[in-house]
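Worked problem 6 (solution included).
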Amino acid sequence: MPTDNALQNKTVLVTRPEGLQHKLCDLLTQAGARPVHYAAIEITAPADDCSREHAREHFAAFDIAIFISPTAVKTTLDYMPVDDSNCKLAAIGSRSQRALERAGLTVSIQPQGHDSESLLQHPGLQASEVAGKNIVIFRGEDGRDVLARELQKRGANVHYAAMYRRICPQHTQPFDTAFINSLDAITVSSNEGLQNLYDMAIKGEADKDALLATPLCVPGQRALKLGQSLGFQHIEVADNATDDAMFGAVRRLFSNVSAQD
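Solution. The predicted structure is:
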């Protein structure tokens, strides 16, 4: 990838969980930017094992298995075998799909978009297809309920399997004013990560005004609304939370700044 003059020597904060930051950091580096990784979410085991134990013990009874995210795929495959011979697999987002396919599994239901609403539009999840079916949703604790609620309205029997828990990480390096002032932009991949980052800055007694004045790249309208409610002044919205989409948002951000200059 050629160096992008708009990104040259720009310091961009990448807040993906540990181990999931590498592709976005590589894209930024190849474009001439300086990525800095500071995880805003830590992935740990769920507080309660009951739902995932149930899914492991009764997987053969499910007709459809839905994977909410790449993390849901990884934590599920690390915890239990997944058989796609008698169970249709559905994945939200291209990264989730690729993670399943790398494990040798076939994804039968893949939406065009990258959220629950897009998945619900898929022909394979309409009432005529799911009424009376047993569906398991592999996700993190305390995820959104929109998917299960709508599938239940369509007549499906839905079980949640909480495969992981997202917590606010404990960093040795404080998220303070000096650190914020070194940044040209911040990227976040979820509402929870954005809220955690904001909370870490405030708890670290950072200059709130400096944080809110730093350009922010977010993955969609829900994150845009949260960023606006927190008071961020300049927000660039990516099409979704994939690495390519987030990188595209960063490029647009700095290209717009260059054009204004």
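Discussion: Strands lie at 11-14, 34-37, 42-44, 64-67, 88-91, 134-140, 157-167, 185-187, 216-218, 235-237.
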